[in-house]
Design goal:
450 residues; rod-shaped; alpha+beta; disordered N terminus; 3 domains; 5-stranded antiparallel sheet
Length: 450
């Protein structure tokens, strides 16, 4: 159906082709002044899902949602249309199946040649896809606006807009920041730095930058943001503004600062403790080395003492054996002397008439007497020596027992000293490990500072 060409025009009217083009490209519907459908074109029927006989004669509210049709603004709009005014609107149309279709339409009156409004025409195009995209974008923008602090800057760095989240965190009213340069929000030391200038140059060149930034609130309070700066381009492809999306991380930064302070204090105390431990370890280690050296000397002396005692005991045993042998021979000598004396008595009886023999016998008897006295003396000395040897042997045996006991105890001491060497080594290893851990902790603190 060619709806618009149904309007009476002169045969040579140049607008006839234009009406045909509109009818072919747009959704078109005609209504009487009460709002009832007079005609609809095929595009309209295709959009709404109705057949022509299902809609002709029915009120236009059939195609609108209840809330739109019942709104006072819509009734006022219809009054304006009947009064000859045109409207451009975007409205949700309700199809036969109940689906919403968003239509951008121009609604205007059709007048007769006398200027009287005789009907209303709605010409529209389906913008559902665009509307859904825009609605999705708008939803995302609103979600960002509600959850994040947002600031917009022109390429020169002047503040174009700031949302309520940002203004609330910084303590400003919109009039206090909009139109001013963003330097007013930054740490003065950073503003004066080469880093600040390089940062803004990168943004103007279209680079997207994510970083932590320190802002200074109206009251001088530090406000830390985890921020992302991104370029926004206009239809001509040129940079028109820079948008900052940020999350407040002030509490986290303050917590990290407190943690850093606590860690630094802890690391300092750990350093002092390690120093004291190392000093104690060095003193203890020196004492241990001295004790070990003395123990080695003592062990050598003990070994020599044991060896000497054992040798002395052996000598005493040998001496006792020799003394016993000498004593036995002394007794035999006494027996021999007695036998010689008896033999001399016999000789003296036999040679009493020979003075020369008697003289020799006297000499021999004198020698035997001397030998007897010597033998008696030797036997007494040997007997005394045997007594002393017995006493010395007993003392040597006791000394040997004590010496062996001392040697055993010293061996135990040496074992303990050797056993403590491993804990000493473990202690210094632990000290080195603690120092290494403290060093790594300080490296982590350096990362926190950045």
């Amino acid at each position: 159906m060619n709806l618009l060409t149904s309007i009476t025009v002169e045969p040579n009217d140049v607008f006839a082709d234009i009406f045909g083009m509109i009818d072919a490209a747009f959704f078109v519907a005609e209504f009487d002044l009460k709002g009832n459908v007079i005609r609809v074109n095929d595009n309209f029927l295709s959009l709404t899902g109705y057949d022509e006989e299902e809609v002709v004669g029915l009120h236009h509210s059939l195609f609108l949602s209840d809330d739109v049709a019942a709104a006072p603004e819509y009734d006022l709009c219809w009054v304006d249309l009947c009064a000859g005014k045109s409207k451009s609107v975007i409205l949700p149309w309700v199809t036969k199946s109940g689906e919403l279709k968003w239509v951008e339409e121009t609604v205007g009156p059709v007048k007769d040649r006398y200027g009287k409004v005789i009907r209303i025409v709605r010409i529209g195009v389906d913008v559902t896809d665009q509307h859904d995209i825009l609605a999705d974008l708008q939803g995302k923008v609103e979600a960002i606006d509600h959850s994040q602090a947002v600031v917009e800057f022109d390429p020169a760095g002047n503040i174009l807009n700031a949302n309520s989240n940002f203004l609330s965190l910084m303590g400003y009213d919109p009039s206090e920041v909009i139109g001013n340069h963003h330097d007013m929000l930054l740490d003065p030391d950073f503003v004066r730095s080469a880093e600040s200038r390089a940062f803004w140059r990168s943004l103007v060149k279209g680079k997207t930058i994510a970083r932590q930034v320190k802002n200074i609130g109206k009251d001088g309070r530090e406000v830390w943001f985890e921020a992302s700066y991104g370029p926004v381009y206009g239809p001509d492809g040129k940079l028109c503004k820079i948008v900052k999306f940020a999350n407040d991380i002030t509490d986290k930064v303050e917590s990290l600062t407190d943690l850093k302070t606590v860690l630094e204090t802890g690391f300092d105390e750990a350093d002092h403790a390690i120093g004291r431990f190392n000093e104690s370890y060095e003193t203890l280690s020196a004492s241990w080395r001295k004790a070990h050296a003395h123990m080695e000397v003592s062990a050598m002396v003990a070994a020599r003492l044991v060896s000497s005692v054992d040798e002395t005991a052996q000598r005493m045993t040998e001496l006792r054996s020799v003394a016993d042998y000498a004593f036995d021979h002394a007794i035999e000598s006494d027996a021999a002397v007695s036998a010689l004396e008896e033999a001399i008595d016999v000789l003296r009886d036999c040679a009493r008439d020979d003075p020369a023999i008697i003289k020799q016998i006297d000499v021999l008897e004198k020698c035997i007497g001397v030998s007897a006295r010597i033998s008696t003396t030797v036997r007494a000395d040997i007997n005394a020596m045997l007594c002393r040897v017995a006493v010395v042997s007993l003392a040597v045996d006791q000394q040997a027992e004590i010496t062996h006991q001392v040697r055993g105890e010293m061996h135990g001491i040496q074992t303990v000293l050797e056993t403590t060497q491993r804990p000493f080594e473990d202690m210094i290893t632990a000290s080195d490990d603690i120092a290494m851990i403290v060093g790594r902790g300080r490296e982590a603190l350096a990362v926190l500072e950045r």
